[in-house]
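wait is this the right file?? whatever heres the structure
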């Protein structure tokens, strides 16, 4: 084989891999996870976890797929941020979320609810901290998104506590603004409910400081997004990065926090952590590999 032939073969394989990664980024997948976290004797509670839609106005297939999840009839919807990827996408986003806005819900914002994505060197994502030194200049309508969700009755957990009633169960909530932008200020004071059926923490980016604070606060389950599950993963190995200080073995899925190993059963006094791989990508890197876009239906059952 000549050098020219070898280079052509490498280029062809690279193009094929890139084409598959672009296709996989549109293979939306529903994950189902069972979490033994409710008090003994309680019936199951269904929680739909949405994250990282990174929606643009032209993504009609994603809008339709998200809307179809209403058939799951969740008892609670939790959105962990990074919903928008275009300044004009808010009406399309609200169309996608509309089937859920009559249900109990809660949300926090991510960096791509405040600022539009910008082109960047993909290699930066392999660094321990990929954040840009200056926020991107194009602002997104996070204020109008928050107002619409609050008007629908969803609980805004931006550095605050609240209580939500879902299927007759009272859930004590605590959340923070996006730790990836250093906007997180863990709310002081006692829990909003003295004796809830569940204590739930919500954050966009699962930085260790936030998970530690929620664990210390008594959260029994924490929901997060941000990582994209690694987005470009190595088959049979997993994520190379989480784009935060969370270890790569917890890049997506259900794990215990804290714990010596992410795959060990949740120990007494620890917290369940669910990290969603999310439904989108930056429009400047619309690819996924060995990491399909996802939403998750968590079925909470008795301990």
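ok assuming it is, sequence goes like this
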């Amino acid at each position: 084989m000549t050098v020219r032939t070898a280079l052509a073969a490498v280029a062809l394989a690279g193009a094929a891999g890139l084409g598959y990664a672009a296709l996989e980024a549109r293979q939306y997948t529903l994950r189902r996870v069972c979490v033994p976290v409710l008090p003994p004797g309680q019936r199951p509670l269904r929680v739909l976890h949405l994250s990282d839609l990174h929606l643009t106005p032209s993504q009609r297939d994603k809008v339709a797929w998200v809307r179809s999840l209403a058939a799951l009839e969740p008892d609670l919807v939790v959105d962990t941020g990074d919903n928008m990827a275009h300044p004009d996408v808010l009406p399309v986003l609200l169309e996608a979320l509309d089937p859920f806005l009559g249900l109990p819900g809660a949300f926090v914002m991510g960096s791509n609810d405040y600022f539009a994505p910008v082109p960047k060197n993909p290699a930066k994502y392999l660094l321990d901290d990929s954040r840009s030194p200056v926020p991107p200049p194009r602002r997104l309508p996070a204020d109008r998104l928050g107002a619409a969700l609050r008007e629908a009755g969803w609980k805004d957990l931006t550095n605050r506590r609240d209580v939500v009633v879902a299927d007759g169960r009272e859930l004590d909530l605590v959340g923070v603004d996006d730790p990836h932008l250093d906007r997180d200020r863990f709310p002081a004071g006692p829990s909003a409910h003295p004796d809830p059926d569940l204590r739930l923490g919500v954050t966009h980016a699962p930085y260790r400081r936030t998970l530690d604070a929620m664990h210390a606060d008594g959260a029994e389950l924490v929901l997060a997004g941000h990582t994209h599950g690694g987005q470009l993963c190595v088959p049979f190995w997993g994520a190379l990065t989480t784009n935060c200080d969370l270890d790569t073995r917890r890049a997506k899925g259900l794990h215990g926090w804290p714990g010596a190993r992410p795959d060990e059963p949740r120990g007494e006094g620890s917290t369940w952590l669910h990290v969603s791989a999310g439904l989108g990508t930056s429009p400047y890197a619309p690819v996924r590999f060995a990491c399909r876009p996802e939403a998750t239906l968590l079925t909470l059952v008795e301990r």
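Residues 5-18 have pLDDT under 50 and may be disordered. so i think its the right one actually
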